[in-house]
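Support request, please re-run this one:
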Amino acid sequence: MTQGYVYILQSLNNQSYYIGSTKNVLRRLEQHNSGNVKSTKSRRPYKLVFQQKFANIGITRQIERRIKDWKRKDFIKKIIKDNYIKSRPLSSVVEQ
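Re-run finished. Output below.
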């Protein structure tokens, strides 16, 4: 199975965060900044502030959804500060 990345972007326009998952972080960042992603188009440009690799894209998508469900900026800031997603139930799939 293909590995994937959870990433966090920060808008240089209003400092808001966007959480996503992908197989190719640099390509995805380019898509966000070029306006090809409807949900982020109005807040660009973005900078990449975090990325973490996971064993497969399925787990990556689950972790992305979990972070989005938190809807808490302080959790997102902690992930960025720690430079690591600490996810107990899924920790066995995190690549070190």
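Residues 90-96 have pLDDT under 50 and may be disordered. The helical segments are 25-33, 57-70, 73-82.
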